[in-house]
Amino acid sequence: MSDFISALPKAELHIHIEGSLEPEMMFALAGRNGVKLPYDSVEAVRAAYSFANLQEFLDLYYQGMSVLLREEDFYDLTLAYLRRSAADGVKHTEIFFDPQGHTSRGVAFATVFNGIHRALQDGERELGITSKLILCFLRHLPAEDAMATLEAAMDYREHIVGVGLDSSENGHPPELFTAVFAKAREAGFLAVAHAGEEGPPAYVWGALNALAVDRIDHGNRALEDPALVAELAARSMPLTVCPLSNLCLGGVTDLADHPLRAMLDHGLFVTLNSDDPAYFGGYVNENYRAMQQALGLSDTVLGQIARNSFAASFLDDETKAARI
Ligand code: ADE
Ligand code: ZN
């Protein structure tokens, strides 16, 4: 890893905490909780990580979550992610969590939240990493489920900065969640949504116009629509780009063809992130490194992307200004 990338202070804005569950921890938690996994070894888990598309990944991602049952599990998962990212020069992180992936298995919202929240507090003390928490709705489930999850989150309003939209994109357009996001925004939550990861440009328009998002997660397929590119540029809309994820899920077959190049050329407000680092073979620095190598990005551009990550964060303006 180049010293320059390692030393760059950065914020991570697109990380699913459940996607940081390394196979070693998956096995340890399965043992601790008496959960039977359909694998004999850590190597067998890793060998299963070969995905043709988003859905193939999501099937394993939801299966992996089955070992997370107690508050301590969510605590250990989150603290391990914070320690690993601190080693990558991450100074601030905005973590997604998927409560419906847990409440649907009988794990209480409070168990999930308390474990993650306590780790974020301890992580800030131990490592100096600041953080925000973003609750994601699973878009393959009905909007009523998302609404009930939002209700459950109201008790934790002061500790959750925003809401997001993730899971299977195709066939689940943002407009299905218009009322949920309107209610969330009314309650003071900021908003993000995965859009244009696999879905068409219309879904990115939907995230902007129906959900009134503050950031777009991925946004790759926005490049197919010149008017949308112009709109994203005019709004200085941050995109949380995740190159190794795109490579692992077939969004690009070669990182040299990654849309980051075109995004930069169009003056879009891009950041680099890991998405689900335990599944896609790299934390944030590996994503910077991969893009540097594939696109020949200069230190100046890499430094700008790292500054963008703070500028696009949900930190307050004063804290942001001190870090950019
Ligand atoms: N949930 C976890 N990772 C995801 C991704 N890359 N896209 C959509 N939903 C997700
Ligand atoms: Zn994601």
UniProtKB/TrEMBL annotation:
<feature type="active site" description="Proton donor">
    <location>
        <position position="197"/>
    </location>
</feature>
<dbReference type="GO" id="GO:0000034">
    <property type="term" value="F:adenine deaminase activity"/>
</dbReference>
<keyword id="KW-0862">Zinc</keyword>
<feature type="binding site">
    <location>
        <position position="275"/>
    </location>
    <ligand>
        <name>Zn(2+)</name>
    </ligand>
</feature>
<comment type="similarity">
    <text>Belongs to the metallo-dependent hydrolases superfamily. Adenosine and AMP deaminases family. Adenine deaminase type 2 subfamily.</text>
</comment>
<dbReference type="GO" id="GO:0006146">
    <property type="term" value="P:adenine catabolic process"/>
</dbReference>
<keyword id="KW-0378">Hydrolase</keyword>
<dbReference type="GO" id="GO:0043103">
    <property type="term" value="P:hypoxanthine salvage"/>
</dbReference>
<feature type="binding site">
    <location>
        <position position="14"/>
    </location>
    <ligand>
        <name>Zn(2+)</name>
    </ligand>
</feature>
<feature type="domain" description="Adenosine deaminase">
    <location>
        <begin position="9"/>
        <end position="324"/>
    </location>
</feature>
<dbReference type="InterPro" id="IPR001365">
    <property type="entry name" value="A_deaminase_dom"/>
</dbReference>
<dbReference type="InterPro" id="IPR028892">
    <property type="entry name" value="ADE"/>
</dbReference>
<comment type="function">
    <text>Catalyzes the hydrolytic deamination of adenine to hypoxanthine. Plays an important role in the purine salvage pathway and in nitrogen catabolism.</text>
</comment>
<feature type="binding site">
    <location>
        <position position="276"/>
    </location>
    <ligand>
        <name>substrate</name>
    </ligand>
</feature>
<dbReference type="InterPro" id="IPR032466">
    <property type="entry name" value="Metal_Hydrolase"/>
</dbReference>
<dbReference type="GO" id="GO:0005829">
    <property type="term" value="C:cytosol"/>
</dbReference>
<dbReference type="GO" id="GO:0009117">
    <property type="term" value="P:nucleotide metabolic process"/>
</dbReference>
<dbReference type="GO" id="GO:0008270">
    <property type="term" value="F:zinc ion binding"/>
</dbReference>
<dbReference type="Pfam" id="PF00962">
    <property type="entry name" value="A_deaminase"/>
</dbReference>
<protein>
    <recommendedName>
        <fullName>Adenine deaminase</fullName>
        <ecNumber>3.5.4.2</ecNumber>
    </recommendedName>
</protein>
<feature type="site" description="Important for catalytic activity">
    <location>
        <position position="218"/>
    </location>
</feature>
<keyword id="KW-0479">Metal-binding</keyword>
<feature type="binding site">
    <location>
        <position position="194"/>
    </location>
    <ligand>
        <name>Zn(2+)</name>
    </ligand>
</feature>
<feature type="binding site">
    <location>
        <position position="16"/>
    </location>
    <ligand>
        <name>Zn(2+)</name>
    </ligand>
</feature>
<dbReference type="InterPro" id="IPR006330">
    <property type="entry name" value="Ado/ade_deaminase"/>
</dbReference>
<keyword id="KW-0546">Nucleotide metabolism</keyword>
